[in-house]
Please model this.
Amino acid sequence: MNNIHPIQDQLVSRKEKEYALHQQGAVIWLTGLSGSGKSTIAGSLERKLFEKGHLVQVLDGDNIRVGINKDLSFSIEDREENIRRIAEVAKLFCQSGNICICSFISPTSEIRQLAKNIIGSDDFNEVYIQAPLEICESRDVKGLYKKARAGKIKGFTGIDSPYEEPLQPAVILDSSSHSIEECVNHLYQYLRDKQIINSQSKSLK
Model:
């Protein structure tokens, strides 16, 4: 560690980047069961923000697993390492003034707290995508629940591995009773209320 010398003080500051982008760097952390709608909401929110002229990046579980974290399994230890790496990447995007939308099951309070500690409580916005297990299972487009029920996937969250609901998330979205558009609009308004985004951004439409 003695040979590591960060050069942040020589670079363009976060404040300068945020001023140029007309937005604040932030991490929107979507958590919930597989099939709850995290990825769909993340992609739709990204599109809405992009069309409003905002710089935004989505980090999604499947994409990360085939790239930066392809060496990790789904053991508890590797799930923690998965989230640790993701949080470090999300922090870099956030510090560059980017709005980073993270879509990960992140099933335990401990794992989500790890992400929050890395990113920082001021930048970490926890969003619980809530949907009953039976609804998530009925949306099983990937066939994962079916495989888990058949014993072909071990440690699957909601079946033989627990999901701990967030106790105090910044936002709760019930995707079983609200449309994707309604969920995205609610999140967009949350970003406006927190002044992460503002009316000065240039719409692409």
About this structure: The chain has one domain: 24-193.
